[in-house]
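Data availability (excerpt). The following record was deposited with the supplementary files.
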Amino acid sequence: MKKKAAVKLDDLINEIEIQVDETFTFINTQTGEVVTLSRDEMRAAEDEEPLEKYPDWQRENIEQAIKIIEDEHEVYLDFTLRNEYHEYEIVEEFIGTLSEVEVREELFGAIQGRGAFRRFKDRIREHDVEKQWYEFKEKKIKELVIEWCEEKDLVIAE
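Predicted structure:
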């Protein structure tokens, strides 16, 4: 296998922040390119349907999915980290870092039950800790990505 190319840290952080259940993310280890494909595009590639059946805008992604599925040289690395990224745990950890007991208690209460994330976001605005939250969350995501890249022997480009 060829030497692995550097992958941009910001590209990977952005992928985690926008990753949804219906998408899959892969890294081309030879180019450093981050590729995101939908579940439908992956399914279309697996079904081996003629590409003409799909609209032009989708064909390129299906062709990319075919390359990934047929990747015998292990060029593509699966970067779908939805099982490793748990925002709720990060929220709990963040709340624990706050110095004001009353704010901590109110935020812990806000994250219980349905609508927890909405209430949490409302309360962090009310208590003027929203900027702290986003900085904390970004730091945690960055740590997760760096750790994952180190485990996979990927070079990170800042």
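Summary of structural features: The mean pLDDT is 90.
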